[in-house]
């Protein structure tokens, strides 16, 4: 819980701020921290399918399906419906603290020849207008203010990869990908005079490069290196940030360059920092180092498909067991620099629903209990708490049938969402496997002296658990789920051993102790990239009520606000690069370091670097390295690449879109690097280049 003092201070500050600008006073309660979601539970809503709160805004004609019998069409759900479900207590009692809603912007009105519509919000037409079937800006403002008054954050979906379905040669197909800037036409897909889009055909998903620079299905793919597109998308997201949104889910991040997306993140974090996570789809069993690189370097978190696919294969499909799950937990803890910032789930709108019928309700309950006690930011797909079923899209996007608050899943979610807020072990703690066989997994989350021990038995027989040990202090512990999943109590001895017990068939038990630290302990820092002067929030425990110091390496940062659990600072003017953060309290006790904050050189722009006639032997690739942190500070191990050479330009020309400091004299060289790390440098003087102050650029030289 945030202290009352800080809330009052924040309200007072925003009051002064708004009065100075003589704007209407907006008092935001409960959502002061828009960059830390680790203690939150997100509820994902397909806006059109949740609740129709205003039938007057429903579409008429062929794109509407009156009783939602045609799941490809609009069914009437809107922001008023979501507001109603906050006001009547359904969402608040569920305990969720964030709502991820469909992209709110205006979408195409036309019917796709296959009978599809834009009900899902992924076919944008004008990012500066609302989708009228969800509501107008007044409705959106009320959605945000209602949510904030209840301590709920609003996350919007955002598709900067594409506009809408289009074909190269048929301007009458859907709306020809047309894009508008607050009503003014920017361009169309066929006859694309201003070159806003890529025209390289559809991707066959054969490589990362192919996925980025060709169309995803028939969706008109933006050329993010085009200045008009770059500026328009960055302006648009600021409009929604200014509307008060608290988070962004970015669609299809695998299909856009990491460079452009880093420049976007830098823009967002310099304007109004909010937690941002991308969708990088991974199939069952898929692990992709490029996905980890993106999560660690771009400034954006990712949806945790490794977690999602693994929990599904253990508890839904029964094709893996808890050893596989534990491997995934251990590997992801290593592969993601901030594993607690990745967004976990058990199902979503792009895969079959977890529940398959009444017989699977218990599996859903167990999966939710594991989700809500595991590392990462848990997301519950609307209707999972009602055991909604459905196969692939659009069957998995059926309307909510009931809003029943007595289901087991609803109660489990409510209990564990509340525990996540109270016990920091769930939000910030690491994970230790304490007992395992193929049917049983007992894992401990621990942050300081806060401990949560969770035991799950996915078999149909009781299991005897002997020789379990834990960090829970000596004592008797009852099940936090209050037997909703047949959990038992345990007795812990002075040496941490647990008296043997029976873990019930298909049972889950959660035992915990909440003991906040009295010395500084950092649980979370957000965001983890930013230029000097940006605001960063440090969360944790034991900071003390009196102001102390926050260190970037050995440099202290300006303090904006300070409480026992939350500190806001400004990134100090230090040389760009990676820094460890630590908090020193007023009596000089210092926290362990929170590692690898990346200080950027300054504002960022996306630049396409290219080099001609760079011939290589197979297995050798071209990289670029230069004199700023963003270009690896002349360290070949940190050089950017491997560069691309197949779509926008072809071998022996290589290219790559990179986020570099704006308006800066850069020095760089291209290098050839083979699989063993052997490096051949370009000869001659360093190449020089001045990046633009804003916008994008392309710079191509000869090897
Ligand atoms: C991923 C979304 O989640 C999916 O539903 C959508 O169709 C595609 N991206 C394209 O926007
Ligand atoms: C080392 C490289 O060998 C050289 O080519 C390059 O110019 C310098 N780094 C940059 O100072
Ligand atoms: Ca409606
Ligand atoms: Ca793309």
Automatic annotation (TrEMBL):
Q: Where are the transmembrane segments?
A: none
Primary enzyme class: transferase
Listed EC numbers: 2.4.1.19
- Signal sequence residues: 1-29
The record, for SMART domains, names: Aamy, Aamy_C, CBM_2
Q: Which domain of life is it from?
A: Bacteria
Pfam families from the UniProt entry: Alpha-amylase (PF00128), CBM_20 (PF00686), TIG (PF01833)
Metal-binding listed as a keyword: yes
Q: Which keywords appear in this protein's UniProt record, sorted alphabetically? A: Calcium, Glycosidase, Glycosyltransferase, Hydrolase, Metal-binding, Signal, Transferase
| Listed SUPFAM superfamilies | (Trans)glycosidases, E set domains, Glycosyl hydrolase domain, Starch-binding domain-like
InterPro entries in UniProt? A-amylase_C (IPR031319), Alpha_amylase (IPR006046), Carb-bd-like_fold (IPR013784), CBM20 (IPR002044), GH (IPR017853), GH13_cat_dom (IPR006047), Glyco_hydro_b (IPR013780), Ig-like_fold (IPR013783)
Which GO molecular function terms does the record list?
hydrolase activity, acting on glycosyl bonds
Q: Where is the CBM20 domain?
A: 599-703
For this protein, what reaction is catalysed? Cyclizes part of a (1->4)-alpha-D-glucan chain by formation of a (1->4)-alpha-D-glucosidic bond
**What cofactors does the UniProt entry give for this protein?**
Ca(2+)
Sequence similarity: Belongs to the glycosyl hydrolase 13 family.
**Do you know which PANTHER family this protein is assigned to?**
ALPHA-AMYLASE 1, ALPHA-AMYLASE FAMILY MEMBER
Record protein name field: Cyclomaltodextrin glucanotransferase
Organism lineage string: Bacteria, Bacillati, Bacillota, Bacilli, Bacillales
């Amino acid at each position: 819980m945030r202290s009352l003092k800080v809330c009052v201070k924040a309200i007072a500050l925003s009051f002064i701020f708004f009065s100075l600008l003589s704007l209407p006073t907006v008092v935001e309660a409960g959502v002061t921290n828009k960059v830390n979601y680790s203690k939150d539970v997100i509820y994902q809503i397909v806006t059109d399918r949740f609740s129709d709160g205003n039938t007057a805004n429903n579409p008429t004609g062929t794109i509407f399906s009156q009783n939602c019998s045609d799941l490809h069409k609009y069914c009437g759900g809107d922001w008023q419906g979501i507001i109603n479900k906050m006001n009547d207590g359904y969402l608040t009692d569920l305990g969720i603290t964030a709502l991820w809603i469909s992209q709110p912007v205006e979408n195409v009105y036309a019917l796709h020849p296959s009978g599809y519509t834009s009900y899902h919000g992924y076919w944008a037409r004008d990012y500066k207008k609302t989708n009228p079937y969800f509501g107008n800006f007044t409705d959106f403002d009320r959605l945000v203010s209602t949510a904030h008054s209840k301590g709920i954050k609003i996350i919007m979906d955002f598709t900067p990869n594409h506009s809408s379905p289009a074909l190269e040669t048929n301007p009458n197909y859907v709306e020809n990908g047309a894009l508008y800037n607050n009503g003014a036409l920017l361009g169309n897909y066929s006859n694309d005079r201003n070159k806003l889009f890529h025209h390289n055909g559809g991707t066959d998903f054969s490589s990362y490069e192919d996925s980025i620079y060709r169309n995803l299905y028939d969706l008109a793919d933006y050329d993010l290196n085009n200045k008009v597109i770059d500026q328009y998308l960055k302006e648009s997201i600021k409009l929604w940030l200014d509307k008060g949104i608290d988070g962004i889910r970015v669609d299809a991040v695998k299909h856009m360059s990491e460079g452009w997306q880093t420049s976007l993140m830098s823009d967002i974090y310099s304007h109004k920092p909010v937690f941002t996570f991308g969708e990088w789809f991974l199939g069952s069993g898929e692990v992709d180092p490029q996905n980890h690189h993106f999560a660690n370097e771009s400034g954006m978190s990712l949806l945790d498909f490794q977690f999602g696919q693994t929990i599904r294969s253990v508890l839904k499909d029964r094709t893996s067991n808890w050893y596989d799950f534990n491997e995934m937990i251990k590997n992801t803890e290593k592969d993601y620099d901030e594993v607690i910032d990745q967004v976990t789930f058990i199902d979503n709108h792009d895969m079959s629903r977890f529940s398959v019928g009444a017989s699977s309700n218990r599996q859903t309950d167990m999966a939710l209990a594991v989700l809500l006690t595991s590392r990462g930011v848990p997301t519950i797909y609307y209707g999972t708490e009602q055991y909604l079923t459905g196969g692939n899209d659009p069957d998995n996007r059926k309307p909510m049938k009931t809003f029943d608050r007595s289901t087991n899943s609803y109660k489990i979610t409510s209990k564990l969402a509340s525990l996540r807020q109270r016990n920091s072990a769930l939000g910030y703690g690491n994970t230790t496997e304490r007992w395992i066989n193929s049917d049983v997994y007992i894992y401990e989350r621990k942050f300081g002296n806060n401990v949560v021990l969770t035991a799950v038995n996915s078999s149909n027989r009781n299991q005897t658990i002997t020789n379990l040990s834990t960090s829970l202090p000596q004592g008797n512990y009852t099940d936090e789920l209050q037997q909703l999943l047949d959990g038992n109590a345990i007795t812990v001895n002075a040496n941490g051993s647990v008296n043997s017990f029976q873990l019930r068939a298909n049972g889950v038990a959660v035992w915990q102790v909440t003991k906040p630290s009295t010395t500084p302990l950092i649980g979370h820092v957000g965001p983890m990239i930013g230029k000097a002067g940006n605001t960063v929030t440090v969360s944790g425990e034991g900071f003390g009520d009196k102001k102390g110091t926050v260190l970037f390496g050995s440099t202290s940062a300006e303090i904006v606000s300070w409480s026992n659990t939350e500190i806001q600072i400004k990134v100090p003017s230090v040389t760009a690069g990676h820094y460890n953060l630590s908090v020193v309290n007023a009596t000089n006790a210092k926290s362990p370091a929170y590692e690898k904050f990346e200080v950027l050189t300054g504002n960022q722009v996306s630049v396409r670097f290219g080099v001609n006639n760079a011939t290589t032997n197979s297995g050798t690739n071209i990289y670029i390295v230069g004199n700023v942190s963003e270009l690896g500070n002349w360290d070949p191990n940190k050089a950017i690449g491997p560069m691309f050479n197949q779509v926008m330009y072809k071998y022996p020309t290589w290219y790559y879109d990179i986020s570099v400091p704006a308006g800066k004299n850069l020095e760089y060289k291209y290098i050839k690097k083979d699989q063993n790390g052997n490096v051949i440098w370009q000869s001659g003087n360093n190449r020089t280049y001045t990046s633009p102050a804003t916008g994008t650029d392309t710079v191509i030289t000869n090897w």
